[in-house]
Model the fold of this input.
Amino acid sequence: MAVNPADSAIYGTLFGSDAMRALFSDERRLQTMLDVEAALARVEARLGLIPKNAAAAIAKAAKAANLSLAEIGKDTALIGVPAAAVAKALGRAAGGDAPRYVHWGATSQDIVDTALILQLRDALDLVERDLKSVGDALAAQARKHRGTAMAGRTYLQQALPITFGYKCAVWLAPLTAHRQRLAELRRRLLVVQFGGAVGTLASLGTKGRAVTEGLARELGLAAPVSPWHANRETLAETAALLGLVCGSMAKFATDVILLSQTEVAEAGEPAEDGHGGSSTLPQKRNPVASAYIVACARGAHALVPLMFQALAGDHERSTGAWQSEPLALPQIFLLTSGALQHAKNVAKGLRVDAAAMRRNLDATHGLIVAEAVMMALAESAGRDAARDLVQRASRTALARNRPLAETLAKDPAVTAYLDAKAIARLTDPVRYLGEAKAVVDRVLAAWRAAASAK
Done:
């Protein structure tokens, strides 16, 4: 029975991808610990610390299928650390004198932490893959709608004209930074942990560093300058980065939700049979994918603080700090994968109604470009006078529900500076897009550069 909805057969697909869920399954967790134990045995055999035949037996037995998850769970409940239970079961599976040499010179946290890093390496690959898919889809939308004019909104009200391509570029821009952050994080995160009881590797005599470096090479990880079992900042950084990724997905989703409101109807989720259907209202198509993006992000954001609380561990092995990390980090990855999966589908199939965008852009009869008129008047009348003139004309246009251009053309104080042709030009929203298209071009160039840098 799944207590957590993210692992539920009913809710699971809404809160995470199957690929990410598999990476943090008990079977995968067990196998990564066995991979570390096998690699450790091979390295120590090469260095003459344990017999080669024992290392071969350990490596041969280090398959999850050879061990019982139920027995490991039972022993973990008694010991308190899964690695100790795994080492005990691995020794039994290897047979002979191998049990004497399993886990040689290591402590349980070495195995748990290094196994976690192996899981995170693969998990980050999934995050990066899905992040790229979302970004590529948004880039395609930005390119396609580079010049599709629409209303830009502040405080949920129309402010100035933008293009839908510009809006897509704003969604896309942080994803370029996230890809760069992921590359930087890997250099700090993908590091082996091997320190023995307190980090000094005293039990291995003069060969402690050689074992650490050999284990790192064996697993394709970096060797640390010092053991990091008591320093958890890179794991907290990982959680924080995923929180940022989720935040960017939630921003995208929130905008889609708002754009899909009946009274706006400028964009919406893909039109698929049954997608977002209501059980009682046949006419509705609810933005359910976007809603779950927001829900996944909120869940991840709620868990990030737990990773930061784990930074304040006591002495050389904490009591409750690092033990709390498994409650948060796998869930943060799973929820991030859920947000990315939904975002990818929405971005690829986004329904865009350019006619509705234009209709809403014209809804205020030119008031959305009052700033353009004010700035043009300011060149001759001065800023304060221009503001007063346009503000008065705007109020009149609103009160009488007439176009701003018409109201301006009837005001001698305005026509003293602007003729009818200038007024018509200044009150055309499509002529007041500023750098909207240029922003699209720069963001797309940055996204392409990030892709080529891989």
